[in-house]
DNA sequence: ACAATACATAAGCCATCACTTATATTTAAT
DNA sequence: ATTAAATATAAGTGATGGCTTATGTATTGT
């Protein structure tokens, strides 16, 4: 069947917003060291369990983490492809100043991605 | 098992918060097309001049833009090295989750179907 | 000198956010 | 069957953030 428009929302907006909060970024960073249940994460930080759950919901909505049920626990893990829109955003604008930042080239060349899309300009100039 | 000691400054904080706002990101993106005065930027968006100045102040504080005076105008331009902490952040944690993806794939290869094992208990709280 | 222009800062308003406690829901343990 | 545990959601609250208008400070033009 011919696929119609792949009009995926692909919001780098949610990603930037999700990672802007230090607690949320700390939770994400903690998950890069291995998957963990909500209770595990709650014990690692000094915020309440609902706060952790809310942060995880934001991260999940941004596509940065995924979850799986294990009995009465919910195991969260990093979604490896979640940072792709962020990398694409950087890749798109790299053309304008890339000659000054060779490390960016190095990083982007080592990324296992294919043909980054142009980040969407939902806030367009007039 | 990676026990990442914290020896990395967290200056990506301001960058994430600076880029989290769509208007501010739009201003930054606009500056990638060339340097511009505040008045130029104000005419491109539908927000007031003080709002533009405030956004530019946040971007400058994050190290994403720099400015130069030209008569009574202030010309803003992208600071090429400004995104480096962001790129470093991605590169740093990318190493972790690619490692974990590999570990997960190895696990799935060696173990067909049953008994998901316990989450990593060696992750230490801060 | 005076007026106009370009920008920054101040002050206030309103929406959003990150947190809390309380509660509902699902699953496990006894 | 009860109780406990793990998590999500609801509701409320204080703080923060982005916007506005008003005003201050340089700089240019006449």
The largest contact between protein chains, plus residue counts on each side, is:
A-B, 44 and 43 residues
Please work out how many helical segments of chain A DSSP would assign. 6
CATH domain class name of the largest domain in chain A: Mainly Alpha
- β-sheet strand percentage of chain A: 5-15%
- Structural category of chain A is mainly alpha
Mean pLDDT of chain A: 78
Assembly context of the chains: homodimer
Helix percent of chain A reads 40-55%
The CATH architecture term of the largest domain in chain A is Orthogonal Bundle
Order of helices and strands of chain A: HHEHHEEHH
Which sheet architecture does the biggest sheet of chain A show?
3 strands, antiparallel
When the domains of chain A are counted, the total is 2
Low-confidence stretches of chain A: 1-10, 112-118, 120-126
CATH superfamily of the largest domain in chain A: Winged helix-like DNA-binding domain superfamily/Winged helix DNA-binding domain
Set out the fold topology.
The structure is a homodimer of 126-residue chains.
Chain A: H1 12-20, H2 22-31, E1 36-37, H3 38-44, H4 49-61, E2 65-70, E3 73-78, H5 84-94, H6 102-110
Helix pairs in contact in A: 1-4, 2-4, 3-4
Chain A binds a DNA duplex (30 and 30 nucleotides) through residues 21, 23-24, 37-39, 47-55, 57, 71-74.
